[in-house]
Amino acid sequence: MSPYHLDLSRMLAVVLLLSVFVSAARAEDDDDEDEKRTPVATNALWKAECGSCHVAFPPRLLPAASWRAVMNGLDKHFGTDASLDAAETREIGAFLEQNAGRERRSSFGKPLLRITETRWFIREHDEVPSSTWKNPKVKNAANCAACHTQAENGDYRERNIRVPK
Amino acid sequence: MIRMVHVLVLVYVAVTGLSSLSARAQTPDGLLAAIASEAKSADPSFRAFSPERGARFYAQTHGKELSCASCHSTDPAAPGRHAKSGKSIQALAPAANADRFTDAAKVGKWFKRNCSDVLDRVCTPQEKGDLLAYLITIRK
């Protein structure tokens, strides 16, 4: 074997070893949370439009029927006019429905429109005391970023939660 | 033949010139001029916009719960906070936020939404122009 080949195989070995270390570190990173780290679905128009008055809520937090109902009533969106033009409504609606959460039994009948009324949200937040909800820095249960410091980036992991005092 | 080439060249220059003009980012002053011509065609007796009237329009409520200041802060050069969701809103005055009033489509969209929330109707060109005239006068 020429010295050149030897060097190349050494380098390959180093790269392989390094990549094993990196993936081991990543795996360790993951398992301190009970939440699944699904890749965050994103769309530039959704982020700009749905993220201008509140955090752009992740599509998986509501089933497709709910998103359809939300998108059909944007001119009266929880007491505000959030209307979009037809092309924007189509693009954002398709993105939301494609990445929506699964349909749940409790959503039979009228689709739920508020994420905060889903059983999942209530269960995840059952240890939050009422004093936190009333804190003026929180103001509203839709203000995810008050505690989920990385909510803007679609990251709701527990390690990034800072409850304001 | 040569004349036809000349004409074609002229047409080409005019078209590319126009399209580069529309592609250029709009300015608050340019948008104010566009609202002024809208105001003139809506009301032939239109004279001018008034920053003072715009300031009053911004600060007061209009028969509903919210005013412009409820979300955009009483000082348009300061960041605001959405009255319902609590999300922070970047400053509205162009002097404090260079992105403001540089996109006619965005301005149109937000006037539609916010006038419906604050006045329960569309704003008149006079109201929009007074408001923008006021915002342009604000210094940081």
Structure description:
- The complex is a heterodimer of chains A (165) and B (140).
- Chain A is an all-alpha fold and 165 residues long.
- Chain A is 41% helix and 0% strand.
- Chain A has six helices and no strands.
- Chain A has helices at 3-30, 44-50, 64-72, 86-98, 119-124, 130-134.
- Residues 24-35 of chain A have low confidence and may be disordered.
- In chain B, strands 1-2 form a two-stranded antiparallel sheet.
- In chain B, strand 1 and strand 2 (88-89) form a beta hairpin.
- The A-B interface holds A 53-55, 75, 78-85, 138-140, 142-143, 145-146 and B 82, 84-87, 109, 112-114, 116-117.
List the main descriptive attributes of the protein structure presented here:
heterodimer; A: 165 residues; mainly alpha; 6 helices; 41% helix; B: 140 residues; two-stranded antiparallel ribbon; 57% helix; 3% strand; globular
Q: What does the secondary structure layout of this molecule look like, with pairings?
A:
The complex is a heterodimer of chains A (165) and B (140).
Chain A: H1 3-30, H2 44-50, H3 64-72, H4 86-98, H5 119-124, H6 130-134
Helix pairs in contact in A: 3-4
Chain B: H1 2-23, H2 28-42, H3 51-59, H4 68-72, E1 80-81, E2 88-89, H5 104-119, H6 125-137
Short summary:
The complex is a heterodimer of chains A (about 160) and B (about 140). Chain A is built from 6 helices and no strands.
**Looking at the chains present, what oligomeric state does this protein adopt?**
heterodimer
Q: State the share of residues found in helices of chain A, binned by percent.
A: 40-55%
Rg of Cα set of chain A: 22 Å
Q: Give the CA-CA distance, first to last residue of chain B.
A: 59 Å
Biggest interface: chains and residue counts? A-B, 19 and 11 residues
- Unreliable stretches of chain A, pLDDT < 50, 5 or more residues? 24-35
Provide the residue-averaged pLDDT of chain A.
Answer: 83
Strand content of chain A: under 5%
Tally of helical segments of chain B: 6
Please give the largest β-sheet of chain A.
Answer: none
